[in-house]
What does this fold into?
Amino acid sequence: MRRRSIRETRRKSPRRPLTPGAPALLLLVFLPPVAPAQVPDATLRVNGPRVVFFSPSRAERDSIARSEGLEIDDVMDDFNYYAGKTSVFLSHRGIPAEFSEARTFIVKVGTATFRTFDRRSIPDPVGMILADGVHEPRVVPGRGTDRDLILEIQEYFRLKEEREE
It folds into this structure.
């Protein structure tokens, strides 16, 4: 018996109509995945030493601006500027810094204990969470200068204060 080529097989095989569910199935297959950081209800898990700078998502900022009349863009500009300067301080000391718009933070303390923070229950829309993986994490709501933030970090992580020359 003679083997047929793929081209011959395709020509001779009957065409099957698509089933009604097939187009929807194709759409599901080709939709791009959504990264967890883009989902407003995302949860961030924090393990080990880390500083997390948290802030509201763009949609939440718009809502805050409409409902409270707060100049949230000015708050965000200040916060991002000083948090960015502080993250350089942290990187020189080997402490990871992370910026997040997550609503929920699960912080590991010790070997089997977890603390959960809901950003909406924190009185300020911006701030930082200090975690070392051993001691109770500390939530520092609000914005401050890089010196203010660094003093909080030095106290929590028991870092030596540096003198300015």
